[in-house]
C-alpha cells in the first residue's frame, strides 16, 4: 500500500487541533458549482435565498473567486430551512464531483494514487478554504480524514460539514468505483435528518456530536492509481492553488453588503435585549433614516430583519441539543423563557420543546 508522508498523524495526538492564528473564513467559488440549479431542484428560489444570506448565486462565477465562508455555510442552512429538507447538504455533496471543485479537486484527480490524493487533499484543502483544518490520521486498521471550520463566528455549519463529507467520498469513488463506502462517518453536530437519508448518502454507520467531523476508511485500495494521474499537471495545480490570494472577496452591490452587515450586527446585539434601530445604525456608521431607506429599497424592513434573525437563530439553536431552552431565550434577547415560547409558537405553531422533540 501507499506509504504516507509526515502529514499523517497518529491517534495519540488527537486531543485537539493545533492552534493557529485566527482567520476569517473564505472559500473558492468552485465549491458553489451548480448551486443555482440545485436550489431550484430543492423547490427554492435562488434569488430569495441570495437575499437571505447576502451572497451572489450564479453558475458563472470565476472558480477561483473567494467567497465569505460564513455566507457559503449560511446558504445551505437557508436552503434547508426554506425547503424543509434537512438532507440538503447530504444531497448536494453526494452529487458534487471532484472535477467541479476547481483546483483542489483536480489536485486530487491528478495525484499518482488514491493515497497520494488523500495526502494532498488534507495538506492543501486549507488553501481552497481558509479558516479550515483538515488532517489525515492513522487509526487501527485504517485512517480518517478530519475536517473542521475554525472561524469562531461561523456557528451554522452542519449542512456544510455534511456536504463536504460527500465531496470527500466522491474522491474515493473516482478511484475505487461508485459502490465504495466509508467504514464510518463522524459529525461534530447533532443529527439533522433521518437515518434513511444518512444511509442513502454513506451506506455506513454515522455518529454525531463527536469531537470532529471525519470520514473513516480502511487502508485497502490506497495504492490504486488515480484515473487522471499526471505528475506535471499536479505540480502546476499545486503551485496555482497555494499562490491564490483570498483577500479579494466577492463583492455584491452596496445594498446587499449593508443587508449582510446589518444581519450580522443584529445577531450580535440580540442577547442585550431589544435591538433598536438608532443603535444598529450607529454601529453600522450610517444615519438612522439612511439605514431605513436603504433596507426598504431592497424590500426589507427593519422589523422584518430582526424577526427573521430571531426565527432563523431559534431553529439553529434548537438543533444544538446541548443548548438549553433557557440559554436559547437569553441568546435571542428574551428576559423569560415564557416570552420566547410564546414568540416561537407564533412563528411555527408549536412550542420550542415540541419542535426539538421532533428533530
Summarize the helices and strands and which ones pair or pack.
Layout: E1 8-10, E2 26-28, H1 35-41, H2 46-53, E3 66-68, H3 69-83, H4 88-95, H5 103-109, H6 114-128, E4 132-139, E5 142-149, H7 158-176, E6 184-186, H8 195-202, E7 206-207, E8 213-218, H9 231-242, H10 254-269, H11 277-284, H12 288-297, H13 302-318, H14 325-331, H15 337-348, H16 352-357
Parallel strand pairs: 1-4, 6-7
Antiparallel strand pairs: 2-3, 4-5, 5-8, 6-8
GO molecular function: DNA-binding transcription factor activity; transcription cis-regulatory region binding
Protein name: Transcriptional regulator, AraC family
Keywords: DNA-binding, Transcription, Transcription regulation
Which regions contain 5 or more consecutive residues with pLDDT less than 50? 12-21, 250-255
> How far do the termini sit from each other?
42 Å
Structural class, by secondary structure, is alpha/beta
Extended strand count: 8
Largest sheet: 6 strands, mixed
**Secondary-structure element order, as H and E?**
EEHHEHHHHEEHEHEEHHHHHHHH
Shape: globular
Mean pLDDT: 87
| Rg of Cα set | 21 Å
The number of distinct helices, counting runs of at least 4 residues, comes to: 16
Q: What quaternary form is this?
A: single chain
Across the major sheet, the strand order is 1-4-5-8-6-7
In terms of DSSP E residues, the strand content is 5-15%
Give the domain tally: 2
In helices, the fraction of residues equals: 40-55%
Pfam family, one: Arabinose_bd
InterPro entries: AraC-type_N (IPR032687), Homeodomain-like_sf (IPR009057), HTH_AraC (IPR018060), Tscrpt_reg_AraC-type_HTH (IPR020449)
Keywords: DNA-binding, Transcription, Transcription regulation
Domain HTH araC/xylS-type: 256-358
